[in-house]
Specification:
The complex is a heterodimer.
Chain A: E1 2-7, E2 11-18, E3 21-24, E4 34-35, E5 38-39, E6 47-48, H1 50-53, H2 80-99, E7 105-110, H3 116-128, E8 132-138, H4 139-148, E9 155-163, E10 168-176, E11 179-188, H5 193-204, H6 208-219, H7 225-249, E12 258-262, H8 269-279, H9 292-305, E13 312-314, E14 316-317, E15 321-325, E16 329-334, E17 338-339, E18 342-349, E19 357-364, E20 374-382, E21 392-399, E22 405-411, E23 416-420, E24 423-424, H10 430-446, H11 448-474, H12 480-498, H13 502-528
Parallel strand pairs in A: 1-7, 7-8, 9-12, 11-13
Antiparallel strand pairs in A: 1-2, 2-3, 2-4, 5-6, 9-10, 10-11, 14-17, 15-16, 15-19, 18-21, 19-20, 20-24, 21-22, 22-23
Helix pairs in contact in A: 2-3, 4-9, 5-6, 5-7, 7-8, 11-12, 11-13, 12-13
Chain B: H1 4-8, H2 18-32, H3 41-55, H4 57-67, H5 82-104, H6 108-112, H7 115-148, H8 156-184, H9 186-191
Helix pairs in contact in B: 2-3, 4-8, 5-7, 5-8, 7-8
Classes of the chains: A alpha+beta, B mainly alpha.
Chain lengths: 532, 192
């Protein structure tokens, strides 16, 4: 028996296949949703779930956003993995109570856009909780399984828009004869319901909890416009990711048969409106926003233990994998959206006589420069002593079905394979991070005012001629009050530059920027329509 | 050398329908995926390589030629049409310059003042994309003609087609990427 688990930012769920159907288990209070909350008193044993929420000021929440990125949660001294492990232990106990037997093997879902560090940390959390983690499964893919299980005979192309408590994923799949083939995926592992709460809390000067209640109340019918104004820019951040995913899948909006919504945040009318507008159709809300991912995890567990047949999942790696090469560039070995499991090989030769080793940095990401990508870590290639260019070592990069990287080193002369450990880049101590931060801040203060003034002047030099030109082109259409207001703001910018006041220049530029935004939009519109 | 046509159970010929390839691939992927009963990781990986190789006409034709024992001509023997090359390179260079200006712009109005250039860049990209697509359609026709005569005709022209297709693919990839960025980034944000 293998269980399926959705380890969510806000809530977590567990289930297993039961007589051919996916079944989710309830906790002792009868709820299938367990809050991903842990209260861990110093020297005491941790309390998980609903009870933990009562300890308002000390409860650890949303640790999923930290997993694989930080070594400790806030000032608690415990790692995100440890906290997640406690949540998984609780789910394990709930499942065992429901089933009446002990469970050891599990499928755990992760955001599709999780990198190797975040996935590896999630797997470690599962192991700390006493599970054998059979598979990490991408959340939108899991949701697609839940959606498609009763449509195995059909052929279709679907997008899954998954906006949860802390993460966003978009995946595009081709469903054909029981094969769930992921064509592309994209996302942001730091974008979700938490961000709406934070933005609402900041805008109305209320607590996060109150903000969340306000958000959920307004979900019932329509969103008050003040809340919508705060949330819209956050939702807009998903637009580019959706378009990129479509582009990567080589599909247009019209090629899709369904756009499936999952994740608690897709209950927001504003999100549904956004999806309707972007994908030009009514989104499919047939899946339970909080449960679809867990149901998919259970189905994948069923595929692995043989209780679900004739279903195959072809998932992809979300991020390009590569190594750092000369000039600080990233050399891609496995491009993003490659079907997993997969592998790629690279040959390395010694650059000097009797060189004993070479350090390789492993990267994930889409940017050209190595430093702009996520560094997974480093490993060392050993060379046998030889003349320059004579020692040759092949390195194999394998990404398994869970999206986890394994590196094998093969000495060409001896044909011996060794598995190498990548030393994680995350495991730098907190003190080291703090020092780095302090250093950069200290440095920044030295010449900040001068530099900021120079930068503001550059912005002024860029804006003034652009405003003048736009007014010359479109001034006839603008209301006299608008022209006067802009002219006044332009004058303020000029004066602030003359008196060399950074504060005045910044505020004048901000004012001019705001005032000319409608003018800018009209200018773009006019050019697009061919009127200019 | 592995015969990727045989891996997919497809005839060893120059022409290949993309939909046939994809359907065959999905059927076999379901059988060889390590999660399936009787699955096989090595065969699954080989299948991925086979699909990758046969999907792109350039690598497919080269693979076919290698299987048929034709000697590979030295690299660099192919020169793409200078006229098309200059047009593509010119358009990409223009887009690069506009994008750099766009990226440096710090205000909405400065970005908006670049919209005419952006529109022009988009049009130039559209034109070269069109020309590349036409040339590709032309080559597809040539492949189909050779495919119809396959077995009788000589395969010598296939290497030239493969080489040209390779150039066109790389250009197209860059053109499409630049178009995507141009259409979906700064100006679209300003209009909203």
């Amino acid at each position: 028996m293998i269980v399926g688990i959705d380890l969510g930012t806000t809530n977590s769920l567990i289930g297993a296949m039961d007589s051919g159907f996916p079944l989710l288990f309830a906790d002792e209070s009868g709820s299938r949703l367990t809050p991903s909350a842990v209260w861990w008193p110093v020297g005491g044993s941790p309390v998980v779930g609903r009870e933990a929420l009562a300890h308002r000021d000390e409860v650890l929440l949303s640790v999923k956003r930290l997993i694989g990125r930080q070594t400790t949660v806030g000032g608690s001294g415990v790692s995100p993995e440890e906290v997640s492990a406690r949540i998984l232990e609780k789910l394990k106990a709930d499942a065992e109570r429901s089933l009446g037997i002990s469970v050891e093997r599990a499928v755990i879902t992760v955001p599709a856009y999780f990198n190797d560090s975040q996935r590896a940390a999630t797997k470690r959390a599962g192991e700390m909780a006493g599970f054998i983690v059979e598979r990490l499964l991408a959340e939108p893919t899991a949701a697609a399984l839940a959606y498609g299980l009763d449509k195995l005979g059909e052929k279709s192309k679907v997008a899954v828009y998954d906006l949860g408590g802390g993460t966003f994923d978009i995946s595009i799949l081709e469903l054909s004869g029981g094969v769930f083939n992921v064509l592309s995926t994209n996302g942001d592992t730091q974008l979700g319901g938490d961000d709406f709460d934070a933005a609402i809390a900041a805008a109305f000067d209320i607590s996060r909890l109150e903000a969340r209640q306000l958000k959920e109340q307004s979900t019932a019918d329509h969103q008050p416009s003040e809340i919508a104004d705060v949330c819209r820019p956050i939702i807009e951040r998903t637009r580019g990711l959706c378009l990129r995913s479509l582009h990567d899948a080589n599909l247009a909006v019209d090629d899709l048969d369904e756009v499936i919504l999952v994740g608690g945040s897709t209950r927001m009318p504003l999100v549904r409106e956004f999806v309707r507008d972007l994908f030009q159709r009514e989104p499919n809300t047939s899946q339970h926003p909080d449960e679809a991912v867990a149901v998919g995890a259970v189905i994948q567990a069923g595929i692995l233990d043989g209780t679900v047949q004739n279903v195959t999942l072809l998932d992809v790696t979300p991020l390009s994998l590569g190594i750092e090469t000369f000039g600080g560039l990233m050399n891609v070995l496995i491009p993003r959206n490659t079907t997993i499991p997969c592998k790629a090989g690279e040959m390395f030769t010694n650059a000097a006589v009797n060189q004993t080793s070479m350090r390789i940095s492993v990267l994930q990401g889409e940017r050209e420069m190595a430093k702009d990508n996520w560094k997974l870590g480093e490993f060392e290639i050993p060379f046998t002593p030889a003349a320059r260019g004579q020692a040759r070592v092949g390195v194999q990069f394998e990404i398994d079905a869970s999206g986890l990287l394994h590196v094998l080193v093969r000495d060409v002369a001896t044909a011996a394979d060794t598995k190498v450990e990548i030393v994680s880049a995350v495991e730098v101590t907190d003190e080291a991070v703090e020092k780095m931060l302090a250093d950069s801040l200290e440095h920044a203060f030295e010449d900040m005012d001068d530099r900021q003034f120079a930068e503001a002047c550059l912005k002024a030099d860029e804006m003034l001629p652009a405003v003048e030109a736009a007014l010359a082109q479109l001034g006839g259409e603008a209301a006299p009050e608008e022209c006067e207001a802009i002219a006044a703001a332009v004058e303020k910018v000029r004066r602030a530059k003359e008196v060399r006041s950074l504060q005045k220049l910044k505020s004048a530029l901000n004012e001019l920027d705001k005032l000319t935004e409608p003018l800018a939009a009209r200018l773009v519109e006019a050019v697009m329509e061919g009127r200019l | 050398m592995t015969d990727y046509f045989a891996v997919l159970g497809l005839p060893r010929r120059p022409g290949l329908e993309e939909t046939v390839l994809q359907e065959t691939y999905l059927r076999l992927a379901a059988a060889w995926h390590p999660d399936a009963a009787g699955g096989d990781l090595e065969k699954f990986r080989e299948l991925q390589e086979a699909r990758q190789t046969l999907l792109d006409p350039a690598s497919r034709l080269r693979h076919l030629l290698a299987l048929e024992g034709f000697i590979k001509p030295s690299d660099g023997s192919f020169q793409p049409s200078a006229e098309l090359f200059l047009e593509v390179a010119g358009a990409l260079d223009f887009v690069k310059k506009v994008s750099a200006k766009m990226l440096a712009a710090q205000s909405a109005i400065a970005r908006a003042s670049l919209s005419a250039e952006c529109v022009q860049a988009g049009k130039r990209l559209g034109r070269v994309a069109q020309r590349v697509a036409e040339r590709r359609a032309d080559l597809r026709g040539q492949i189909a003609a050779i495919d119809a005569e396959w077995g009788k005709s000589s395969a010598s022209s296939l290497e030239k087609i493969a080489a040209e297709w390779h150039f066109l693919s790389r250009w197209d990839e860059e053109i499409q990427e630049k178009r995507f960025l141009l259409e979906n980034q700064p100006l679209a944000d300003l209009r909203r």
